[in-house]
Amino acid sequence: xxxxxxxxxxxxxxxxxxxxxxxxxxxxxxxxxxxxxxxxxxxxxxxxxxx
Amino acid sequence: xxxxxxxxxxxxxxxxxxxxxxxxxxxxxxxxxxxxxxxxxxxxxxxxxxxxxxxxxxxxxxxxxxxxxxxxxxxxxxxxxxxxxxxxxxxxxxxxxxxxxxxxxxxxxxxxxxxxxxxxxxxxxxxxxxxxxxxxxxxxxxxxxxxxxxxxxxxxxxxxxxxxxxxxxxxxxxxxxxxxxxxxxxxxxxxxxxxxxxxxxxxxxxxxxxxxxxxxxxxxxxxxxxxxxxxxxxxxxxxxxxxxxxxxxxxxxxxxxxxxxxxxxxxxxxxxxxxxxxxxxxxxxxxxxxxxxxxxxxxxxxxxxxxxxxxxxxxxxxxxxxxxxxxxxxxxxxxxxxxxxxxxxxxxxxxxxxxxxxxxxxxxxx
Lengths: 51, 366
Hints:
The complex is a heterodimer. Chain A is mainly alpha-helical.
């Protein structure tokens, strides 16, 4: 089996970008869940108060 | 009489495929390993490897209709989305980080497959076995036009079924007994209904903006979840969870056999792909555990590092494995809700990873 070093080196940059990309999207999703929970609780409290 | 026996010319490759088919059927029935998929796959492997099999053409047609067009993986995602309760994740959103970390094996495997001489498209298709998620593996591998579809699907589903065997030794190797005994308090709470309804929509929009190639996958997954959470389509949600997902899995299994014909499947590369798939699952586990250990260096409330391993997408198998391991170390240590949160995060993260892989590979697709 021939080892393909240039391909391997090229793949390392994909690995770096890929993991970085996943973490960026994940952090944004986490923040959006905090915002959703905050807004959701506010709306629920408001509805409870009205009842 | 001669005509009657004219088809009795079985090559040794076809005979080997019969054995492989029989092994898949055995694992499905006797070991209860992903039976909805492995049983039709095993039977399909025998079906298409009969001499001059008249089934090849029709199976190939269903393949073109259902898999090449990506209909089956997408329909399956509606069912999976309807099955998932994102409650534990919405209670503790930080668990999503483990879903991200546990995609590490995908990219490690991409590099290793590239080093072994697979071209980038094939290397990426093999690497996506590490998504630990059948529909994502099928959709990405299909979109990249790999020649190794059969081996990739067999590896993806086999290792998903083997999570209880693959993950524990890896986790034990990289954690101490004291770490595995860390207790985590669960602060459960009612998730507002509006949050549960908006979550699938928000995830679809955000993921779609960052990884447009993943939007079909994540969109169908989240649509299934919206059916579950909206509260007015319970019948459809139940149909998606029980009937749609099972029917599609069944068709998927037997159709995959189109890529399990002896001449395409029985190659040295197949063994290498099975090895690379195992490597991907191992490093997914390592990625999740190491992130948890890293977070423990900076946080006051320690995380049981085993939770990180549940960030792989094999749902709900992985969360159950981690919960059982926790109980084994300390019978009072209940990790299920935390591990389930990490596990459903892995489902989302694996789709994002698939989308990013497709984005990166667009330059290599002719």
